[in-house]
Every structure is written in structure tokens, then in C-alpha cells.
Specification:
alpha/beta; 45% helix; Nucleotidyltransferase, domain 5; six-stranded mixed beta sheet; 9 helices
């Protein structure tokens, strides 16, 4: 099973032309290693006199030196960010994101659509795509272990039955929470009426978590922050975006340009 932690770029708090939502996919058996990694990075970065105040790695504060990170040298903060991204390579963590250009969205006939919901739906689409590719890769690399059986059908079926993704989203205000919860249930389908062909890899419901207590949400926040600034054209974050880019398995930008979304 994979845990898909989702958080947005929190564009309401700063001037930005983009709404980004990222999903960080962590295999269940790697969870404790991620937790230990973040704990060690926090212990090395946060001075002893500030540890009681430390609650989470909030990307904008860590990058800018605000909040509990105020007074910590930039070199140490940036080194901590790189160490956080090193976990992605060490533990084969995948990233998926949906992005909405707010100015272009306002110029469309559906300009009043909720950009958070668009980005969230794109993340679900990307996770579904990522799971399909995993199943296909395993099926086409699996040896035919039984003479006379289809060498592809059996591993495809096995992968379909085994792949499961639990969605965990950062806690948000009531209206946004209700909207993305509705979207999840619509896209997953009603278990009473859907057919087997409509079954998705998602767990039966999605869940919301407090970023202060969720290492996965903190990593998703980190990705959304740097992806958003990269799309904004901020060259100051190129080095950090370059750590993320090799792990991006799916991405789309909306509204599409000439009907063609960008897909990594």
C-alpha cells in the first residue's frame, strides 16, 4: 500500500499566479524510515533552545528563515532542505502535481471554477495513472510461471488487486474541505453502483491530517512550495526544484495551452 499525502501551495498567503497541489507517494514499509529521517534533520537543524517551539517543516518559513527558523543561518536551512529531498531518492518517493495558472483560468468561460479543486482532481488523475504504469511494468516484466497461461493477464490481475492508495490531505477550511471530499467520492465512484471496471486504486475514503503531526504532508508542502515558485519563474529556487524534478511521475498545468496539458 502507498500513502499519498497531498498539500497545496497556499497561494492565498502570497502574491502568486499559480495554484499548485502536490501528492507525495510513500510506500507503507518506508514510512518509519521517512519519519526517522525527518526527526534527525530537525534535531540537527533546530537549536536546543528552540526545540520546544518547533512543530513542523513549513516550506516558506524554512526557506525564508521565518518563525522557529528565524536566526538560523541560511546555509544550514538550505542544507536541511537538501537533506529532506535526499530522502526522496533514498526511499524512491514519487511526486505528482496539478497546477493552475490563475490568470489564464480567469480568462476562460469557467473562470469561476475553484483552482484548488482542479489541482486536487489532477492529483487523483495522476495517482491513478501512476498506479496503472506500475501494474503494467510489473506485468510485462513478470516471467510466465505456468505453462499454458497468459503471461500478462495473471500479473495484471494480481497488480490490480494488490495496489492500494490511501489519500491524506492537509486539513483545510470547511468549504474547500467539502469540495475536495465531494470530488474524491465522485471520482472514486459509488461502491453500490459502480462496475468492476470502474474500481480505482484508492482506499474507500480520503482522510485529513494536521501538518504539524504529519511528515508526509510536510513533504508535500515542500514540493508544492518549490514547484509553485519554479512555475512562477523564480530562479532562486531552481536548485531545490532540480531535486524534485527527477521524482515527478505525472503533472498537468491548467488551463491547457492549445488543448495540450504539460505532462512530465
Amino acid at each position: 500500500m502507498h500513502l499519498a499525502y497531498i498539500d497545496d501551495s497556499d497561494t492565498k498567503q502570497k502574491a502568486c499566479d499559480w495554484q499548485v497541489m502536490s501528492a507525495v507517494l510513500i510506500e507503507d514499509r518506508s514510512f518509519k524510515l521517512v519519519e526517522m529521517g525527518l526527526s534527525g534533520i530537525a534535531e540537527a537543524l533546530i537549536p536546543e533552545d528552540k526545540r520546544e517551539k518547533f512543530e513542523e517543516f513549513h516550506a516558506c518559513e524554512l526557506f525564508g528563515g521565518y518563525g522557529v527558523f528565524d536566526g538560523i543561518e541560511q546555509t544550514r536551512r538550505f542544507d536541511a532542505i537538501e537533506r529532506l529531498f535526499t530522502l526522496f531518492k533514498a526511499l524512491d518517493i514519487s511526486v505528482i502535481y496539478g497546477a493552475v495558472n490563475l490568470e489564464r483560468l480567469r480568462a476562460t468561460p469557467y473562470g469561476s471554477a475553484d483552482p484548488v479543486d482542479i489541482a486536487f482532481r489532477t492529483c487523483l488523475k495522476g495517482i491513478d495513472y501512476w498506479v496503472d504504469k506500475r501494474i503494467e511494468a510489473r506485468a510485462f516484466s513478470a516471467p510466465d510461471q505456468e505453462s499454458g497461461t497468459d503471461p500478462i493477464l495473471r500479473p495484471l490481475l494480481q497488480g490490480f488487486l494488490e495496489e492500494l492508495v490511501l489519500i491524506v490531505v492537509d486539513e483545510c477550511d470547511g468549504k474547500i474541505k467539502t469540495g475536495i471530499q465531494r470530488s474524491f467520492r465522485q471520482l472514486r465512484g459509488d461502491r453500490k453502483t459502480r462496475t468492476d471496471a470502474e474500481i480505482t486504486p484508492f482506499h474507500d475514503d480520503m482522510y485529513f491530517g494536521d501538518s504539524r503531526y504529519s511528515i508526509g504532508i510536510q513533504l508535500a508542502d515542500l514540493c508544492s512550495y518549490f514547484i509553485c515558485r519554479h512555475l512562477q519563474g523564480d530562479g532562486a529556487v531552481d536548485g531545490f526544484y532540480n531535486w524534485i524534478e527527477p521524482h515527478i511521475r505525472f503533472s498537468e498545468v491548467h488551463p491547457t495551452l492549445d488543448g495540450v496539458p504539460y505532462t512530465a
